[in-house]
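Final report, Chapter 2: Outcomes

The project's central promise was a pipeline that accepts a single protein chain and returns its three-dimensional structure in a standardized token representation, suitable for archiving and comparison. That pipeline is now operational. To close this chapter, we reproduce one record exactly as it appears in the project archive, with the input sequence first and the structure output second.
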Amino acid sequence: MALTLIILIAIIFDVSEKMDDFLDKGAPLNAILFDYYLNFIPYFANLFSSLFVFISVIFFTSRMAAKSEFIAMFSSGISLPRLLYPYFIAATIITIFSFILGNYVIPDSNKRRIEFQTQYLKNKNAKYGGYNIHRQIYPGVYFYVESYNQSRDMGLRVSLEKFDGVKLQSKLNAEMMIWDSINQKWILQNYYIRNFYPDREELISGLRIDTAFRIKPSDFQSKTSVIEAMNKKELDELIDEQKLSGTSAVVTSEIEKHSRIAAPFSTFILTLIGLALSVRKIRGGLGINVGIGILLSFSYILFMRFATVFAINGTFNAMFSVWIPNILFALIAAGIYFTAPR
């Protein structure tokens, strides 16, 4: 019920914000309903599922505490750890369900949602270029381009270096590279190649050479939104590729990977906090507990977003940064649990 209510509110705000884009781009109604909002709902619901489980636990437990149900349970010999069983069974089911959704089901729906956004909400002609781009395309093979123009699929001042350990074996330099979309190759212009041998050095030069190496025009595009449309296997492959190339974008991909594990697991932590907070019958009843729950929910969201900055800035690795909120709130949960009435 809590999820349904907040999703309806989110959809209303989203429609009011994007209505002009829908009308300007001529988006058909069936595409808006089935390609965008039908795929928007599971993404949004799974993103905040653990937090609404938290609010639901507080609501349900506070109602029982207000009716003195727990006093009767504790008087009959039921312990607080025993009381946790049904809560944690439900949390386990929700966690498994959320993990499967986040890693295997929602990425497919995100593909259709992102395709709709690209076609009707974003500038389809937007291109991403870059300057001073470095990549390791194979072990010991390093690529560099001084500037790249995505709208023309062209790069200026290119170099390709091959090392054997720390020893340079060959180096290719070219003034320009142009993508041949028909043959799926790069055309290098005004190039020269230097090969280094133990007893001599070889120099080869020319006006044009066709070559194929492990870089395509799509590799110069921003993949921030693309990773949302990748399942676990595809995301792991992307991370391995980014680590090999040495790009800083690997941090964003690792944050996405670990968030898909940390977010479902937070259901256990927030369930424990919700139960420990609400099991005590207090004056003010449901209202105070729900208020505390909402405050903790928003503080968790704020800290979760803030913690990823540590990974982006290189202060901590991505895994630790993503798990910082869970670690902190697990300590809070332990403190509240051990002070709860038994």
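Archive annotation: The first helix runs from residue 2 to 25.
This record, like all others produced under the grant, will remain available to the consortium after the project formally closes.
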